[in-house]
């Protein structure tokens, strides 16, 4: 384990379902991130939270809704997704929003059917 | 905004040799650059951060160089081992003055026994 835990590891959902991805870190980090990784494409930044406040929403469709209830937890709520949303969703944290390496979780492999 | 180019073709090398991977960027010169390792189905793992005033940085068998004139970073693994087989990603700040990263697509390295 890296210190960033993501659940579930795999998720299959229909286009009309509502589900949530969970991310937890106990590293004492102040910044948390959601990234999307599709096959043969670079990681795409989705959302950034710093000290529990959202500081970036990178033109992500409203069917993705993040939530950061405290500095240790981050959620990504999903509803009415499309098949093209199938991807590996990665959560990461860093000490602060500065020149620090990111600690990534193992990701949630999402398949939309 | 920044663009990153990494060789998308896989690099195969013989065990014991030095692997050299390239990261080129196209726009402004970042204050720092990072390298990550990613294994299939897992999140990236932070390896090294190098700042613009550090021409070279080492960590065990890893060495990273940063040439702001060429807009290029080289990542070297000396005495490579089959366990070094993975995809290696470089990451830079999106734009000057930000701490949000853009990632390259990565180069897949395979070390042959």
How would you describe this structure to a colleague?
The complex is a heterodimer of chains A (about 110) and B (about 110). Chain A is mostly beta strands. Chain A has no helices and eleven strands. Chain A has strands at about 5, 10-15, 20-25, 30-35, 45-50, 55, 65-70, 75-80, 85-95, 105, 110. In chain A, the strands form two sheets. In chain A, strands 2, 4, 5, 6, 9, 10 and 11 form a seven-stranded mixed β-sheet that branches. In chain A, strands 1-3-8-7 form a four-stranded antiparallel β-sheet, with no helix packed on it. Chain A starts with a strand and ends with a strand. The mean pLDDT of chain A is about 90. Chain B is mainly beta. In chain B, strands 2, 4, 5, 9, 10 and 11 form a six-stranded mixed β-sheet that branches. In chain B, strands 1-3-8-7-6 form a five-stranded antiparallel β-sheet, with no helix packed on it. Chain B has strands at about 5, 10-15, 20-25, 30-40, 45-50, 55-60, 60-65, 70-75, 85-95, 100-105, 105-110. The interface of A and B includes residues 2, 4, 48, 88 and 101 of A.
**What is the terminal-to-terminal distance of chain A?**
30 Å
The pLDDT mean of chain A sits at: 92
User: Sheet with the most strands of chain A?
Assistant: 7 strands, mixed
Average pLDDT figure of chain B: 92
Shape of chain A: globular
User: Which parts of chain B are unreliable, with pLDDT below 50 for 5 consecutive residues or more?
Assistant: none
Beta fraction of chain B: over 45%
Helix count of chain A equals: 0
How far apart, in Å, are the first and last alpha carbons of chain B? Answer: 41 Å
Helix content of chain A: under 10%
How is the secondary structure organized here?
The complex is a heterodimer of chains A (113) and B (113).
Chain A: E1 4-7, E2 10-13, E3 18-25, E4 31-37, E5 44-50, E6 53-57, E7 64-70, E8 73-79, E9 87-94, E10 103-104, E11 108-112
Parallel strand pairs in A: 2-11
Antiparallel strand pairs in A: 1-3, 3-8, 4-5, 4-9, 5-6, 7-8, 9-10, 9-11
Chain B: E1 4-6, E2 11-14, E3 19-25, E4 32-38, E5 45-51, E6 56-59, E7 62-67, E8 72-77, E9 86-93, E10 101-103, E11 107-112
Parallel strand pairs in B: 2-11
Antiparallel strand pairs in B: 1-3, 3-8, 4-5, 4-9, 6-7, 7-8, 9-10, 9-11
